[in-house]
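Write out the bound-state structure for UFG.
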Amino acid sequence: MAQILVTGGAGYIGSHTARFLLERGHDVHVLDDLSKGFAHNVPEGRLHVVNLHDAAALDGLFGTHRFEAVIHFAAFIAVGESVRESERYFRNNVGGSLSLLEAMRRHHVRRLVFSSTAAVYGNPEQTPITEDSPVRPVNPYGESKLMTETTLRWLDECSALRFVALRYFNACGAEARFGIGEEHEPETHLIPLIFRAIRTGEPLTVFGSDYATPDGTCIRDYIHVSDLASAHLSALDSLMNGGSSGIYNAGTGKGYSVLEVIRAAGIVTGKEVPYKIGARREGDPAELVADSQKLQKTLGWSPRYDTLESMVASAWEFDSMRHGRD
Ligand code: UFG
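---
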């Protein structure tokens, strides 16, 4: 089985993917500077605390292992923060990726799976969104991911690098048997904030109820983190088998409104979700739903979780465990 480097493997999606790779028998090494991720997400003996800008440390890591591929998650992900601290986002997300790609070239590692985002589409003209829809990010976070995609396209053209970029829609849920789940500091994501509202009684603010959607609240395509992890394994298999580079949406193709997610959480937990309607959050598109046919057809991937309630239930299971833990 292969030696695989997972950057950002102490974060939410990266840590799930690392566990699935280990289950498959791969020799997984996690690189993370722990600026956002948590050491407790990484199995014993697998973590290298390294920042992507540290070329000497990268040389050390690549020099002592024979990585056959890299799965690259390490990035800042907060949209609002990216507007306020744009330079930091470009330096970390674009600069960090370049430093990694340079190290990969120095050490002849030629396969990369890259975590991209639906944010590259900005405010799409139509949904479901296909991969050939126009890319027009509306914030530096989305632009930083698009710039990295562009770099990868050119490296595919001009070098031996082959890559798969996965444009994630809304990751959610957890894999309870691994004891890991969604933990961000500060938390900005809907489902963990719904649970916080249930636990504290402090109402969740619904950001806008005047969108052009059936109930007026924003619609998103929620995909279970384990299904996202399995998309990375499919991408890796394709590259290991000599597959060509490609960019794929990763979603389920089903959209749910904020109020539908709140309702699902009420059913799953058996508790009232306190919420109030507030102003729109800047930069939120009304509806983001993926057309993921390309991922299903080309890489043979399919999602296991097909109901919102099953996804929310797995998130609640982790949230309850976490509150027992902390
Ligand atoms: N929402 C609320 N109240 C909250 C938090 C969220 O109403 O307190 C709403 C948002 O307005 C949005 C939906 O819940 O309509 C989902 O919001 P999240 O913050 O959970 O997720 P986003 O859709 O904003 O973000 C996700 C990823 C980002 C990525 C973006 C692409 O987490 O990394 O999709 O648009 F950039």
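---
The CA atoms of residues 173 and 315 lie 4 Å apart.
The radius of gyration is 19 Å.
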